[in-house]
Each structure stands twice: as C-alpha cells, then as structure tokens.
Amino acid sequence: MPSIRNSTGRGRRRLKNDINVVPYIDVMLVLLVIFMVTAPMITPGIIDLPTVGQASEVPAVPIEVQIDKEGQVSLRLREGGSEFQDVDKANLITEIQALMQNENPIVIAADGKVPYETVMELMDQLRSQGFTRLGLLVNKDE
C-alpha cells in the first residue's frame, strides 16, 4: 500500500496506537527492589500498656459469691483473712447489701460442674436488684 503524499511531496506519518511499556516496567521493578530492601528495616510498633501498679486509684475490694458443686452459695468480702459464709439463696441479696461499701464490684466464682443456667440466674437476680458491677471469676490453672 503506497503512502499518502500531500501537496508538498512529503509522506504523512501514520499514527501509532501502541504504548511503549518498557519504561513503566523499569519503574515498577525499581520500586519493587526499593520496597524489598526497606521492608525488613521497618520496626514493628511497640505499645506501652498501663499496669495495675500505675493506677491512680486503688480499686474497691470485690464481694465474692461462690457456688459449689451442690449449688450451695457462700460469700465473702475478698480481702486478706476473710472466710466464706454460707448463705441461703433467699437471703443472698440482703447479705450482699450488708457487705456492700462504696459500690464494691461483685464477682461470681462457680465450680465447673455447676450448670451455666444457675450462674446466669444468679447474675440476673443481682442485676435486677440494681447491682451493675458484676463479673465472673476464672481459674487460670486448669
């Protein structure tokens, strides 16, 4: 196919619709090498978490409610030297209110063989009486 000539006698260039991607590949490979070299040099962030020793206010002593295998409920103020007192389930709320000072939190410690439903019923009973600071005590040894 002959080239098209204009009136001046020069041939008109045809348009190329190809893109030269070699420079883009070179730039991509240089960036890849830079990231591969710098990635091992980045140190992971270290987060300094607060510890209990740095707390400005000493937390209140919790009241511990314990449920044994047979379902017997006992409670104590969780501080050094205090012993568990067996409590009837009907008198549990009044006994807790007698021990309560300064919005103490209440923790529930139940034997592993106690049904989950029993613990949830106790938590629901305490929550319905207005005790909002409730928790579960866990044993890390097992």
In this structure, how is the largest beta sheet organized? 5 strands, mixed
Report the count of strand segments. 5
Distance between the termini: 89 Å
Strand order of the largest sheet: 3-2-1-4-5
The proportion of strand residues reads 5-15%
Radius of gyration: 37 Å
Poorly predicted spans: none
Structural class given helices, strands, pairing? alpha/beta
Helix and strand sequence: HEEEHEHE
What's the helical proportion of residues? 25-40%
Overall 3D form: rod-shaped
Average the pLDDT over all residues and give the rounded result.
81
Number of helices: 3
Structural write-up:
This protein is α/β, with parallel strands linked by helices and 142 residues long. The chain has helices at residues 22-38, 92-99, 116-128; strands spanning 63-67, 73-77, 85-87, 106-110, 134-136. A hairpin with a 5-residue loop joins strand 1 (63-67) and strand 2. The longest helix is centred in the N-terminal third of the chain and has 17 residues, at 22-38.
Give me some keywords for this one.
142 residues; alpha/beta; 5-stranded mixed β-sheet; 3 helices; 5 strands; 27% helix
